[in-house]
Amino acid sequence: MIGIMLGGIVCGEAGPCLVWSAEPVLSVAATQHDQVHGALAAEGTVDRFILDPRGEVEGLFLADGTHLYVTSRAADQLVRAFVPGNVVRVYGRLMPDERLVQADAVINVTTGTTFTVPLRLDLPMQEQEHTLSMTEMSAAGTIRAFFYHPLKHTIQGMLLSDETQVRFPPDASPALRRSFHVGEHVRVRGNGTTNRFGRAVEALAIGRNSAALVPLDASLQRLP
β-strand 113-116 against 18-20: which pairing, if any? Predict the structure, then answer.
């Protein structure tokens, strides 16, 4: 259960909760937030929501490439707390090489609200997890940034210049994931979703520039 209350913190039996502060965040010193939430790991502007190929919101991607994940069970609370363009401060632990934050709390400086990141099992499974579906999609563009897996810290996808979020299949080899570079042009075919938060696709085949698309399987180490 998640509780919401002005000027305070309401936690249900599960524990972590969404907090809406009655006082503007800008009037509170960052050191005071450090005492409550831990170390300041990142700050910047929300560029977009991170999506999985079914279109579920999984986290936030900032304009400088910093990104963080929350359980998709908290997606409704996340999209109510933030919109692209909001300035945020993220408290937690930053992996600088991956620009990935294990976040404990995210303060929306623009609106003065705080989102406390819940654990997956603190929230019930949402019905949409059973109903979301994917369709055949394609995408093409230069690689703008990479998305890293929140636990394995391996590259799990990339953001293209056409605004598509590409996800590698779970069995894609580590060597293949590392073989791509920011600025490269790629074409992708796979299954995914387009919704009001963006478009995301799980790649089934991929090619560089105008080269033929290569089907992705666990044995593929790099594109020919």
Answer: antiparallel
HSE of 218, CA atoms in CB hemisphere, 13 A: 2
Where in the sequence of the chain do the CATH 2.40.50.140 domains occur? 133-215
Give the residue among 144, 141, 147 at the shortest CA–CA distance from 52: 147
Q: What is the CA radius of gyration of the chain?
A: 18
Q: What is the pTM of this model?
A: 0.80
pLDDT tens digits along 39-78: 999 999 999 999 999 999 999 999 999 999 998 888 899 9
CA 26 to chain centre: 25
Q: How far is CA 6 from CA 35, 40, 79, 109, in A?
A: 21, 24, 18, 16
DSSP 3-state of 30: helix
User: What is the second-level CATH architecture of the domain 133-215?
Assistant: Beta Barrel (2.40)
Top-level class of domain 18-122: mainly beta
pLDDT at 128: 52
Quote the tokens at residue 107. 């303060």
In angstroms, the CA 109 to CA 114 distance is 9
Contacts of 90 (CB under 8 A, 6+ apart): 40, 41, 42, 43, 62, 66, 68, 101, 103, 105, 106, 107
